[in-house]
Design brief:
Elements lengths: L21 E6 L2 E8 L15 E8 H10 L4 E4 L1 E3 L2 H14 L7 E3 L6 E7 L2 E7 L22 E8 L6 H8 L3 E6 L18 E4 L3 H8 L4 H8 L5 E5 L5 E5 L5 E4 L12 H14 L4 H15 L12 H11 L7 H5 L31
Parallel strand pairs: 1-4, 1-9, 2-7, 5-6, 9-10, 10-11, 11-12
Antiparallel strand pairs: 2-3, 7-8, 12-13, 13-14
Helix pairs in contact: 1-6, 4-5, 6-7
Length: about 375
Amino acid sequence: MSTDIPGIDPLDGLRAPQDPACDVFLTGTVFLDIIFTGLDSAPVRGTESWARGMGSSPGGVANMATALARLGLHTSLAAAFGDDHYGEYCWDALEQGEGIDLSMSHTVPGWHSPVTVSMAYEGERTMVSHGHEAPGPAVPAGEPAFPCCPPRARAAVASLTPGRSEAWVATAARNGARIFADVGWDETGRWDLDALTDLEHCQAFLPNAEEAMRYTRTDCPRAAAHALAERVPLAVVTLGAEGAYAVDSATGASAEVPAIEVEALDPTGAGDVFVAGFVTGTLADWPLADRLAFAGLTAALSVQEFGGSLSAPGWAEIAAWWQRIRTFADQDPAALQRYAFLDELLPAAARPWPLRRAVPTIGFRHPV
């Protein structure tokens, strides 16, 4: 975990005594990620490859949880953890290292942690994963499955799956949470929006361009965003190297922000970081374009580091970037103005760039 700037709360001034203690709730599978870095090329069949670096960290849904927590949001995660050393390590890294509330999580006796080995090279990644579905905690007969009763929260993040409804999403929405959702590749090939049954509960839907166009039967991601805005209050379509485009159906406003050009080392978790940045800006009631810019900035900072949750930026990284980028003589003043809203959020002094990140690993019992 990076040493963050103390005292930055993106919701400062918006909190009230009657508000829920939890800002964002999410649930899913936690993996142990082992990341090999410093590979010159993809592994070749029948040979042994040596990596110059290695890190390990909680992955899977932990990427999103970590990204939210590092941006100052009170984050609650409901997940299963193995009772092996990997599970113990992930639990400690999330609860003690990142300050994530795990009171809704549980350890499963006799179940081993899912593992992903990720190899990063040439700005891409290759992953191998292994795991078994975790049994849920014991609940009385007839009661909903885990997580049956999500805590009251300002927001919740869900991943939609065609043909499957998650009871907790409707419960969270009824309790006042704003639901932000992404979606994966539709393995059925039908790309039917009506099959995303939990979409009706969503405040915001954030697919990538390919997903958005397939679901809306359009050939332009911007047209797809407008089509999706007929189904959800906020439609956000990520455009890869082109940035992102969003439509607010309540106001009719749209916004487009270009991507920040960076040297990408590892894209793992960048989508999660983008969503976390957009959730942060939305809960803070920023203008739509500022939310897109902030989400894109946090995602850009994340791909410059290796790993998923390891690379999620906090306010220290954001402040250091903002301080450094303004020292470049050839910067376009109009482009810099796009991020001027950061001045009101960040302290005048920031840690120097580049920042040193802690890269956790398994096995050390004492600081090294």
